[in-house]
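User: What would this chain look like folded?
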Amino acid sequence: MRTMTKDKILIIDDDNRNIFALSAVLKARKYRCVSALSGEEGMELLKKDKEIGVVLMDMMMPGLDGYQAMAAMSADQELKDLPVIAVTAQAMLGDKERCLEAGAIGYVSKPINIDTLTALLTKYI
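Assistant: Here's the prediction, encoded as structure tokens.
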């Protein structure tokens, strides 16, 4: 059974700079953050750490990308209800809809508007 610790966020992004910047901003707002540099590493962490309350998922990563990771989460009984916020540099027409159809509960594009992200986090955790 997953326990929901409301302030713990998993950031999955293949760019360490994005993780560093996002973690710094979120920690300043009293969120606890853990991170993974790939979809595969993120999935492993989700299976081990039962305190994660929301996932910030980079959609474009080598290997297991955000879409594939969300599909794997949806198929996993323990992870299927965990909220995922899609984070992407892709801001093309239809990208937001594609992310939401894939199972994300929210969508933010890079560079991230922290107020928008905070509003989503407040709503879902």
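Residues 16-28 form the longest helix (13 residues). If you want, I can go into more detail on any region.
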